[in-house]
Amino acid sequence: MKKEKQIELSAPKTGEKYAAYRDAENSQDRKPQNFLKTAKKLLSLLKGNRLKVLFVILLSAASAGLGVIGPQYLKSIIDIISEQVKNKLQTGSMDFSPVTGVLKNIAVIFGLYALCCFAVNYVMAKVSQDVITELRDRVNRKMSRLPLSFFDSHSKGDLLSRVTNDIDNINNSFQNNFIQIVTSLVTFFGVLAVMLKESPIMTAATIVPLPLGGIAAMVILKFSKKYFREQWKRTGDINGHIEEMFTGHKIVKAFVHEEAAIEEFRAINEELTFASRRAQFFSGFIGPVISFVKNIGYVFICVIAGYLIIENKMSLGAITAFMVYSNMFMQPLVDVSRIVNTLQSSLASAERVFEITDSAEEVPDTPKTEIKKAAGFVDFENVDFSYSDDKPIYEKFSLSVKPGELVAIVGPTGAGKTTLVNLLMRFYEVDGGSIRIDGTDIRDISRENLRSIFSMVLQDTWLFSATIRENIMYGRQNATEEEFMNAVRAARVDRFVNTLPDGFETVLDEEGSNLSVGQKQLITIARAILADPQILILDEATSSVDTRTELQIQSAMNNLMRGRTNFVIAHRLSTIREADKIIVIDNGRVVEHGKHAELLAKNGFYSKLYNSQFSFS
Questions:
Q1: Cα separation, 481 vs 487, whole angstroms
Q2: Closest Cα to residue 526, out of 570, 556, 565, 481?
Q3: How confident is the model over 434-462, as pLDDT tens digits?
C-alpha cells in the first residue's frame, strides 16, 4: 500500500535510472506540443472523402435535430394530460385522443432518428478505414524514402509501435469520436436556440455556471495532454525493450541477464504506468467538473421554474420540456468531457506518426545518366564523412579500384570499414569529395540504378519467413531453374538442403531460426550469387561458418569474383591472403595498401594486425 501511494505521488524509484536516460535522450518530449496543428493535419486526411464526410455531418445534424424536436412532443403530451385532468375535475370527463396523434409523431421521429444513426455509423466506419489505410500507406511509403540514419536513431520496437498501436488509436478516435463531436455541437446549439425561444431567463440561469466549467476544463487539459504524449512515448519504449529481449533471448539467457532484463522492463513499465495514471487522473476531472456545473444550473432552473409556475407564466409541460432541454444542453459537454481522454490520446498518437511522415527524406535523386552495364571501376576521391560534427570518420580519403580486382578492407573495430560500403551504396551521403563508378559520380545516377549494380552479403544475415527457394530467388526473381541451381551449388547450399525433408521448399520460421547460423549465411551468399552483380560486397561474409565451410565458400567465390569488382570486409585476415589489393584503414585513413606478402614484409600496421590474430595459436 505504501508503494502504491509512492507511485501515484511521485515518479517511481525503480524508474529513476531509466527516466534520466529518457530525459537526456528526448528532453523536448516534456515541452508542450502543438496539438491544434496536429488536429488540423489529422483532419486533412479526410480530404479524399469530402462527400462522405459531408454526408455524415448532414445526417449527424439531422439526427441531432430530431433529438432536439423530441421534447416538444413531451411538452404537448404533458400539457394535454394536464388539461384533461382539469376537465376531469371540472366536468367529470376526459379525452385522450389528442395524445394518440402525438405518439404517432414521436414514433416517426424516433424511427427516422434510428435510421440516421445507422447510416452515419455505417458511412463513418468506411471513411475511418479509408483514412487509416491511406495513413498506413503514407507511412510505409515514407519509411522507404527515409535515410539509414533515421533507422539508426530509432528503435525497431518504437517504430513498430507507431505504425501499429498509434495508428490503431487514431482509427478508434476517427470512428467513435468524430460522430460524437458533430452530434454534440449540433445538439448544443440547437438546444440553446430552443431554450432561448422558450425562456430567456431560465436559459441564462443554465448558462451562467458554464464559464466556470470551461476555465476548469482548460486548466485540466493543459496538464493532461503532455502526459498522454508521454504515455504513448513510453508505449513505444516498452515495445522496443520487448522486441530486443525476445530477439536476443539466447544472449539474455547465455549471460544470465534474465533478472536484469525483468528489472529493466519493470522500470519502463512503471514509467508507462506513471504517465498513464497522470493522464487519466487529470483528464478524469473534466467529467465531474461538468456534472457539478450542470447541477448548479439545475438548482437555478428549479428556483426560477417554481416562480414561473406560481405566476402562471409557463405551463407544466413547458417547464418539463425545458428541464429536459437543460439536461440535453449539458449532455454534449459531458460527452465531450468523456471523449477528451481518447481525443488527446489519439492526437498524441497522431503526433508520433506525423513525426515519421514529416522526417527529412534522403537527398532527392537527380539522375543525369544511367549505367546499364558497369565495367567495375570504383574511385573514392578526397571523401570526407562523419556521423557527427565532432567525430570525423573519413578525411580526404582516396582509393582507386580496377575491374576484376578483389579488394580486401581491413582495420581495427571502428576504423570505418563498413562505413565505406554504406557510402558506396549511398546509404549515407558523403560530406565532401566524390565516389565514382566508371567515372560517373554516384550522385548523378539514381539510387535504384546504383544499387542494381551491387550485391551484398552482410555480417548479420536476414531471411524472410518463406521457403529456402523464395529466400534465394529474392536475389533475382526472374531467374531460371538452371541459374538457381548453379547459384546454390556455387554457395554449397545444396549439400545441406538435400538433407532436409522438404528440400528447397522448407519453410523458414522467423529469422530462419530452424537453420544454423552458417547455413543461413550460405543462403544469403547464394542469393547474392543469383543476383549476378557487377560489383560484389562481402561484409564479414564468412565470419559465422566453420573452417571447412569457409574454404568451400572461398573456392566457390573465387569463380564468382572473376571479372567483377569485389570488396571484402573482414576481421579474420586469414581469409584474404589471395586478395589483389588489401586496403588497411585506421581512423578513416588508408595507412597501407598492397598484397598480403608485401604488407607482411613491411612489418607495419597490417603485419601487427595479422600477427596479433595468431599470437596465441
A1: 10
A2: 556
A3: 999 999 999 999 888 898 888 887 777 77
3 state SS of 409: strand
Report whether 154 contacts 237 (CB < 8 A).
no
Strand order in the sheet with 565-569: 454-457, 535-539, 565-569, 406-410, 581-586, 589-594
Could you give the CA distance from residue 20 to residue 617 in angstroms, rounded to a whole number? 46
Strand partners, 386: 392
- 402 vs 105, which has greater pLDDT? 402
- pLDDT category at 279 given cuts 50, 70, 90 is confident
Q: Which three cell numbers stand for residue 116?
A: 440516421
pTM: 0.61
Owner of C-alpha cell 430552443: 194
Measure Cα distances from 189 to 37, 84, 120, 162, 332 in Å.
Answer: 26, 34, 20, 37, 10
Residues paired with residue 491 on neighbouring β-strands, in sequence order: none
HSE of 56 in the Cβ direction (CA atoms, 13 Å)? 24
* Residue 5 CA neighbour count, 13 Å, CB half: 2
Copy the grid coordinates of residue 318: 413547458
Question: What is the number of other CB atoms lying within 10 angstroms of the CB of residue 39?
Answer: 15
d(CA 168, CA 135): 11
Give me the residues paired with residue 454 across strands: 535
CB 156 within 8 A of CB 240: yes
CA atoms within 13 A on the CB side of 222: 6
Q: What are phi and psi of 546, to 5 degrees?
A: -75, 170
Query: Nearest Cα to 378, choosing from 402, 347, 404?
Result: 402
Cell triple for 281: 487522473
Distance CA 319, CA 506 (A): 78
Backbone angles phi, psi at 314, to 5 degrees: -145, 145
Cell (9 digits) for 191 = 438546444
How many helices (H) and strands (E) are present in the chain, helices listed first? 23, 10
Radius of gyration of the chain (CA): 36
C-alpha cell at 36: 491544434
